[in-house]
Structure formats: structure tokens, C-alpha cells
Amino acid sequence: MKHRFDHSPYVVPHNESVKIGDFPTNDTNGIRDKKHAKDLIKEDIKTLAEAQNLLYAAAERSVLIVLQAMDAAGKDSTIKHVMSGVNPQGCGVVSFKKPTSEELAHDFLWRCYKEVPAKGRITIFNRSYYEEVLVVKVHPEYLKPQKLPSREGKTTSIWEERYEDINAFEHYLDRNGVKVIKFFLNVSKEEQKERFMERLNNPEKHWKFNPADVEERKHWDDYQQAYEDMLNATSTPWAPWYVIPADYKWFMRSLVADIIVANVESMNLKFPEVSAKDKQKLAQSRIDLDSEG
Ligand code: ATP
Ligand code: MG
Q1: Which atom of ligand 1 is nearest to the CA of 135?
Q2: At what angle do helices 249-265 and 75-82 cross, to 10 degrees?
């Protein structure tokens, strides 16, 4: 199991101020074209399957992958490609949409915490609690149905409180053996338009087109600001953000797979050892089977 790329250009440093515009959307790290990338992703998928197998067998740690992005950045296809080789028994995907009334009746982490993976498993969050500092920050009217306590006399903003709570939550997860890996799929405004147009022009892709996405696009700058604030406030040593160039989907998939592999590698997991006593039992089982004739 070995990873391929140097990931440092894509990690958001802790306690340093970054500008979202400084992260490229169209970098391919020397990968020449789609064909080249396809060969690599085949290997990556195999390596990822090995990594998952080890995680599952060791059953000590789990992996929580958080995916955040603007519409049409490729969350769905990343999930489809990256997880295509892994054993479905050991992984899951949870999509977070507009909160239901049951979800609104609880604190904002509730619906996500319930889905945190058990030991040995990988879970992907397709959107997450980060929506609470993204779409809700861009549309603060979404706070109203949350019926939060009065903010009278408070000197910090609700967003600062949420960053703090999210950091504490992720620290808690990390301390309890859940590796949190966060990807922001960074697509350019031009490429998003191309992809919307493609959905409109191709009848087979009409089902993917949502007029609300074009409405949200009008808030592009506000979203970029919210993403930048989020990256600066919540990239921590225990749960760093990776900003993944998303204009070339084939490169994005390869990089995401590679980062997941590197994270599992860094856990130094081992397949469970069989004790001397259990080895004796195995030997006995062999004798029993052989003697069946
Ligand atoms: P796709 O369009 O590929 O199916 P999607 O993740 O965009 O995937 P949609 O059903 O189109 O799914 O959109 C979900 C919507 O729910 C997004 O606009 C998102 O911002 C919104 N959402 C998610 N969490 C919250 C939240 N906590 N508060 C308000 N809106 C939220
Ligand atoms: Mg959508």
C-alpha cells in the first residue's frame, strides 16, 4: 500500500490565513490526460480496497470522509468512482439535505453524529454539519426554524461558536479513533456553468438539472467567502481540510483516493495476530477436516 502524490499543496495549514483564490481549480499535478488518469485510478481503487480490508480486519479505527462543494463540482461521481472497488459491507454514504422537522427539533450535530462510522468502517458524508456554516451563513434566515437561544449580550458570532463546536466535535472523534478527512472539491465558476449547460443540452442529463442550483449560483461570491472562512477556522491538526482542484474530474478522483490511502497508511494498522492457542485450534480443525475422508 503506497500513496502517489505529495499532498502538502492541497492541505489548508492550521492557524494560517489562506485565500480561497490561491488554491487552483485546474491543477493536475503532472497527470497528462484522462487516459493517463484512468490507468492510475485503477491502481488507486485497488490500493484503497486493500486499505479498507486492513481497516476492517483490524477493527480498531474508522474513517469519516466529509465532502463539501458547490453544486456540480462532482461529489456524486467522486463517491461512485473512489468507492467502486471497496467491500460494501465496510462502507456507507450518507447525504445531508435540508433538515427535516425531526432534525430541526435537535441540535445541529445530532443527525450527523448518529452516522459516525463504527470501528473498521468508512463512512462518506455527502454534505455535512459544515452546511451550518455555509448555506446557513449565506442564508441566515435558515437559522429561524432552528429556534436557538437568544444571543443578547453575546460578543461572539454564531458562526464563531459553530466553528468552535465543530472543532471540538472533530477533536473528540479523533481522540476516539475516528479519522476525519475533509475534502473541499474546488470547482471554478466557469466550469460550473459549463456543467449546468451540459445538463441542459443533453436530455439524458436533464434529471440532474435543478433550477435551484442556478439560483444559488447567484450567491457565488458569498459562498466563496463562507468557504474561505470555514477553511481558515476549521482546518486543524486532527482534522485538516484538503482543497481538491475539481475542474478535471479525473484528477480530482485520483487525488481523493490517494489522500484516503495515505491516511489509512498513517494509522499503522496490522492484521490481527492469531494467538498460539488459536493456532493450535486451527491445526486441530485441519486434522478434523482431513479425517472426514
Ligand atoms: P445532488 O444535487 O447531486 O443530488 P445535493 O447534495 O446538491 O446533491 P440536493 O437535494 O440538490 O442535494 O440539495 C441539498 C440541499 O440541502 C443543498 O442546497 C444544501 O445546501 C441543503 N442543506 C444541507 N444541509 C442544510 C442545512 N443544515 N440547512 C439548510 N440547508 C441545508
Ligand atoms: Mg443539488
Answers
A1: 20
A2: 50
CA of 97 to the centre of ligand 1 (A): 4
For a ligand 1 pocket test, name from 71, 131, 185 the mutation site with the most ligand atoms within 8 angstroms of its C-beta.
Answer: 131
For position 171, what pLDDT does the model report? 98
Cell of 241: 481540510
- The C-alpha atoms of residue 235 and residue 213 are separated, in whole angstroms, by 27
Is the pLDDT assigned to residue 1 strictly greater than 70? no
Taking the CA of 131 as reference, the closest ligand is 1
Give the pLDDT confidence of 138-193 residue by residue, as tens digits: 999 999 999 999 999 999 999 999 999 999 999 999 999 999 999 999 999 999 99
**Ligand 2 centre from 159 Cα, in Å?**
24
User: CB-side exposure of 58: number of CA atoms within 13 Å?
Assistant: 19
Reference 85, options 123, 122, 47; nearest CA is 47
3-class state of residue 72 by DSSP: coil
Ligand nearest to the Cα of 215, by number = 1
User: Torsions phi, psi of 12, nearest 5?
Assistant: -85, 120
**154 with 38: CB under 8 angstroms?**
no
Tell me, using a 6 A CB cutoff, whether residue 89 lines ligand 1: no
Mean pLDDT for the chain overall: 95
Please determine, for residue 249, whether its predicted confidence score (pLDDT) is greater than 70: yes
Fill in the DSSP letter of residue 183: E
160's CB contacts (< 8 A; 6+ apart) are 233
C-alpha cell at 248: 478535471
CA of 138 to the centre of ligand 1 (A): 13
pLDDT score at 261:
92
| Beta bridge mates, 224 | none
State pTM to two decimals: 0.95
Q: How confident is the model at residue 230 (pLDDT cuts 50, 70, 90)?
A: very high
**pLDDT above 90 for 3:** no
Expressed in angstroms and rounded, the spacing between residue 14 Cα and the centre of ligand 1 is: 28
